[in-house]
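Hey L., structure's done. Input below.
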Amino acid sequence: MFVLLYNTGAWVSEMIGIRVADVTLGATSSLRLHGKGRKQRTVPLWKETAAEIRGWVKYILTCAPSTPSCPPVAECP
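Output:
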């Protein structure tokens, strides 16, 4: 996820708060970040970053549907 940090310029505190609903994947992909004081900003994503996120979201929704915002600790069975 270092590419996501680099691409967005997000603070670690903003990265921790990312939910699947904050990600928009499509022709123009973007990410909604939540900062201090209820501030929100939307940042565009590079195509490479969007592809990585697509794979990450697919993995999470397949392996841990009860917690879509957190990557699973153990490997998928």
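The chain is about 40% helix and 15% strand. The mean pLDDT is 81.

-- N.
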